[in-house]
Amino acid sequence: MKKVHVVPHMHWDREWYFSTEESRILLVNNMSEIMDRLENDPDYLYYVMDGQTAILEDYFAVKPEARDRVKKLVQAGKLIIGPWYTQTDEMVVGAESIVRNLLYGLQDCEQFGEPMMIGYLPDSFGQSAQLPQILNGFDINRCIFWRGVSERKGTNKTEFYWTADDGSKVLVQLFPLGYAIGKYLPEDLDALKKRMDKYLPVLDKGATTEHIILPNGHDQMPIQQNIFTIMDKLKELYPDRDFFMSRYENIFEQLEQNKNLDTISGEFLDGKYMRVHRSIFSTRMDIKALNTKLENMMTNILEPLASIAYSLGFEYHHGLIELIWKEMMKNHAHDSIGCCCSDKVHAEVLNRFILCEEKAEQLIKFYMRKIVDNMDTQSADDRLTFFNLKPYITEEVVTTSVISKLKGFKIIDENGVELEFDLLHKEEIDPGLIDRQIVHYGNYDPFMVYKIQFKVQVPAMGYKNYFIQQDEVALEITQASEVNEVDTPYYNITVNKNGTLNVTDKQLGKTFKNVLLIEDGADDGDEYDFSPLPNETLIYNNDVTAEVSITQNKYLAKIHVHYELAVPSDLDSRKAGKRDGKIEVCYEVKIPMNKAILDVEIEVENLAKDHRVRAIIPTDIAAKFSVSDNQFGHIKRDVYDTAMDVWEKEGWDERPDSIYPMLSYVGISDESHGVAVLTAGTREFEIVGYDYDSIAITLFRSVGFLGKEEMVRRPGRPSGIKLATPDSQMLGAVNLHFAIVTHKQCTIKANVAKMAKDYLTPIQVYNKIPYNAMKLNDETIDTPLDYSLLTVANPDTILSVLKKAQKEDALVVRAFNPTADAKTLEVDLSVPVTKVTETNLNENDKCTLDKPAVDINTNQVKTIKISI
């Protein structure tokens, strides 16, 4: 007899086309009904809370008195919570964000009882190839999801093992028809039979045992009070099946007895049987880019800086850092970060990120101030302190500001060695903006803000201090030379009439022409998916005349380009062949003298609707595949998905264009050389061109509806609902930051991942002056003038994070290996070490180590906990 596990659950989108506050009202109502039923009906055994603890946080904000009720039900095994904090996206959300999502989710569960140890992601838009490794890092060996799998991945079954490159493995129970096939099950026998006759054969076909799941729930759905009546009717309709209330763990216990399950690997982004929205990565680019910035700020700057401060004796503010992470993770839910929401919800999402940015920036300033204010020195001079948050010595060209009343000054270190610098700009600033107490007592003398530029070397994972001393010679602005072309030890660059660049790499002896060509095309899609107009002609900036200026000094060269590109104002104009709208393109490229990189900041003033704008970077390499990063590793993807040839005939839900996500870089290469884009904002790319020889980076998409029907790339019903979203037209300025690098060898051997990490971890600067708007009392801690906490011996491994352990007085060092060969992570600390252990991602000890060193295989992540 076939066994049908009826699992009551809710799928709880905190926000979507409705706001968080609207869903919270429903949550308070539904939770009362759920708990009443669980407490008073011994036959109603289980209820699954969608695998995320943020629901409980929202509920307790209104009903704090219900905590004990929830705790009793969790401990009784009836209310099933965790393991996530929110239902995370896996495509444009970084590794540490997903790790913290589980870390905080499981931490929340500890207050109530045992969590559901299943990687439960029933609605995420595609599955990362690295998810098995992340789940195993929390001792989770089971996984449930819906989207992204087809039989071309290696199995036609809905139960299988899924492995990551490092050998991590989870047992998967797929929802082949989604999580809502048991929503609002009708009592009418004919209606019930009509529905189940459609679903049961599909469930049976994919099953490897006699056990299948009927999930009884839906988005924001209240508990189905008549479920036992429904189950009786199901037994009447299907006497050869046993319908009973269950939980997901029960079916996994059955699956684990099957020794003949298929094993598959890789990421799952096939839209054959369900939509995965393989172009959602660029919707609401303002929100997406801010998320990228914040993730880098947290893991590359704030947490390592807080760890340095902790090693010097200051408090590590877990509480403040957790507040930021949790607010970010509320936005990492698949609909929120996917940006397939109403304008009202997007305003809330954007505001959360803005607040997170403010919290993170202020905490970074606080830690730098604490360290610098307490330096062991008798000097009364102002100071300039440089923080290097990379685990190796760094030399960079830095542009920063010095605030002073001095007319002239020099910058020297503790040994009297002077730091040479250029003055780029100076202006007066009102003293009240520095400390209002100054003007309160009648001192209105202005301060000067000096913008200076120099090259500086800073110790590994530490800082170097300089003193600002008065000089009798007043500072004069150093004028950069206006030149016709850029010439550095690495590049010669000229600018074409249309604003594109011709870049000659001197080391490679190769020239790349028309770099940063702008492409504009129709977007007849919605917030979920890009969709072109049939047979359209794309628009490029080939024929514009750009305003160009090029300057160069001893530290870097700078190219400034501005032009207008006429484009259709909307879809109707585009269909009619009119160019009655425009975009204004303004970009600045900085090319330092000491490294091979083009640092690009671009602003597009968008004055048109319903289109997609991309930047094209040619490589002269006929690529078969691209290499980009995913969580804790790299992934190769074919430049052309062969399913494009059969998707219509096979009836795919969406066209499988090779539009893909990245986290920090994408590159194409041959064995001799390559070109890559390092991103601090956009995370969407496609390899384009007749020979697949160019990288197209999406700058933004401009669309006006949450969901639309009958699109070229996605036929059929709307995804979501057809709700107007004028804010998603992205009218106004769109600002993005990325870099272009050329290199010898292929993308993986050149370790472009390390280039990206270095690019995204710039030196931080703190200028100490005698005035602060907010006062702090003196500490009893003396900090050294120069300091290095640790050095990583093999820089080929990538530091994912340095932080304080959640529950111990220890540092956590996490690193991964993006190269093709096994590497050893060896950490050399400048402070005494009392104990070293290797831990899992949950920071639980796995084994004791003699020293802070571990071997790491390709695409593997490892964590060391070091007591100091």
What can you tell me about this protein's structure?
With 868 residues, the chain is of the alpha+beta class. The strands form 10 sheets. It has a 10-stranded antiparallel beta sheet. Strand 33 and strand 34 form a beta hairpin. It is globular and about 95 Å long. The mean pLDDT is 96.
Number of helices: 16
Mean pLDDT: 96
Number of strands: 47
What's the story with the biggest beta sheet? 10 strands, antiparallel
Query: Shape, please?
Result: globular
User: How would you write the strand order of the largest sheet?
Assistant: 18-25-26-27-28-37-34-33-30-31
Poorly predicted runs are none
**Percent in helix:** 10-25%
What fraction strand?
A: 25-35%
Terminus-to-terminus distance: 60 Å
Gyration radius, in Å: 29 Å
- Structural class assignment: alpha+beta
Please give a handful of descriptors for the protein shown:
868 residues, 47 strands, 16 helices, six-stranded antiparallel β-sheet, alpha+beta, single chain
Short structural description:
With 868 residues, the protein is an alpha+beta fold.
What's the helix and strand layout?
Elements: E1 2-8, H1 20-40, E2 47-48, H2 54-62, H3 67-75, E3 79-80, H4 95-109, E4 119-121, H5 131-136, E5 142-145, E6 159-163, E7 169-174, H6 189-206, E8 211-216, H7 227-237, E9 241-245, H8 248-255, E10 263-265, H9 285-311, H10 318-331, H11 334-338, H12 343-373, E11 382-388, E12 394-404, E13 409-412, E14 418-419, E15 422-429, H13 436-440, E16 447-458, E17 462-470, E18 481-482, E19 486-487, E20 491-495, E21 501-505, E22 510-515, E23 517-522, E24 539-540, E25 547-552, E26 556-567, H14 571-575, E27 581-592, E28 598-606, E29 611-618, E30 625-630, E31 633-638, H15 647-650, E32 659-661, E33 665-669, E34 673-679, E35 684-688, E36 694-702, E37 732-744, H16 752-759, E38 764-768, E39 787-788, E40 790-792, E41 798-804, E42 810-816, E43 823-829, E44 835-839, E45 845-848, E46 853-856, E47 861-867
Helix pairs in contact: 1-2, 4-10, 9-12, 10-12
